[in-house]
Amino acid sequence: MDYRRFGDTVYARIDRGDEIIGCILDICKREGILSATFSGIGACGEAEIQTYLAETDTFENRIIRGMLELISLDGNVITDDDKEYYHHTHALISYKEGDKHCISAGHIKSLTVLYTAEIEIRPVIGGVINRKFDPETKTGFWDFK
Predict the structure, then answer these.
(1) Quick one: which of 10, 28, 129, 144 has the fewest CB in 10 Å?
(2) How far apart are the C-alpha atoms of 90 and 75, rounded to whole Å?
């Protein structure tokens, strides 16, 4: 991984074998970015996609491996009162199964780079978006303090 900050924006190149979400969180920690949005594209070798099933209050995980085109990656980074980092990430991925061209999308748990990924991280300017835990859904939401 390598990255540069130009103005308020961070541009990151994530390299083969690196896990994208971990790299984004690492950059935010190194740069002192407490809340941000990010987007990107690339080529991955593995994606773990989650779907929340409200009726059973569980996540269904699916792992896809192979030559995966990361068509669109969008997400955010926020922190809680203890400065612990969290992400909320969605992506659209295309790949082939035999002769079929397929697409999969959803909430992303992890993405491992096959060739490269190019990520733009945009810190929140003039404030911080915190994380507020919601006991009903057992997840965190944006909290504007």
Answers:
(1) 144
(2) 6
